[in-house]
Amino acid sequence: MTGTLYGVGLGPGDPELMTLKAARLIGGAKVIAYPTLAGGSSFARSIAAGHIVPGVREIVMDIPMTVDRAPAQVAYDLGAVAIRAELEAGHDVVVLCEGDPFFYGSFMYLYARLRADYPVEVVPGVSSVMSCAAVAGLPLAARNEVVTILPAPELARRLSDTNPTQILPPCDTLVVMKLGRHLKAVRAAIEGAGLIDKAIYIERASTPDECVMPLSQAPEKAPYFSMILIVKGADPWL
Question: Of 9, 55, 166, 228, whose CA is between 20 and 30 Å from 130?
Fold first, then answer.
């Protein structure tokens, strides 16, 4: 009998925002797997650290930080091979995923490689979107309001051939994720659309390094784990 693959959402960073099920699975795991970025430490592992038992076997997937997708796909291929060996030996494998496994989560790449051959269970996690709305004190939607989530790289791409006043989608609430090096272009687009006074910048929500401020006061550079919320119909606490 083969083992089961678990994709476990850990939430946005605060270990107390993990679900009871996630904590139970991690605490009982004999094999865990998680990504690191370019040889650095693992954010996912740091969230789960308090539940990882001594002696657990750890599969580390080092994901290169490149625009080219090919090197990352090779890393997921190698990770899937290592996980497959454990599953074939009858061992369950718990994959640690910050946020939610199926919401811009790295687990989906392992899922695509392994789901046809092994039982898989996905454990949802609190997404960064919900965490950012909570720390900013901005309700995302009510009644029939529309929420749009847009990755910053896509928004920046649209700037190259579209009038800035027209690139933002028609919606009541706009969430712009994965800011990083795209912050300057995204801020320009939001200013061009006349929405800068509605925009809130959130960085590393729910962690000790959390930062929340109006976008107009945001720093020039942003980490990957940052987000902008624009609630068009509300009055943000500016």
Answer: 166
Distance, in Å, from the CA atom of 152 to the CA atom of 201, rounded to the nearest integer, reads 13
pLDDT of 163 higher than 80: no
Q: What tokens does 96 get?
A: 């640690």
Q: Please answer whether residues 215 and 199 qualify as being in contact, where contact means their C-beta atoms are separated by less than 8 angstroms.
A: yes
Spatial distance between the Cα atoms of 173 and 157, rounded to a whole number of angstroms: 20
Q: What is the mean pLDDT of residues 134-141?
A: 94
* Nearest CA among 3, 238, 22 for reference residue 126: 22
> Model's pTM, two decimal places?
0.90
Q: Kindly list the distances between the CA atom of residue 175 and the CA atoms of 1, 8, 16, 150, in Å, as whole numbers in the listed order.
A: 44, 24, 24, 6
The pLDDT assigned to 126 comes to 97
Residue 122: CB partners within 8 Å, gap ≥ 6? 6, 7, 9, 101, 102, 107, 111
- In angstroms, the CA 20 to CA 213 distance is 31
Q: What are phi and psi of 184, to 5 degrees?
A: -60, -45
Strand 199-203 and strand 120-123: the pairing is unpaired
CA distance 84 to 112: 13
Strands 5-9 and 120-123: parallel
Q: Give the tens place of pLDDT for each residue, 31-55.
A: 999 999 877 889 999 999 999 999 9
Give the pairing type, strands 226-231 and 173-177. antiparallel
Q: Could you give the 3-state DSSP secondary structure of residue 200?
A: strand
DSSP conformation class of 11: B
The CA radius of gyration of the chain, in Å to the nearest whole number, is 19
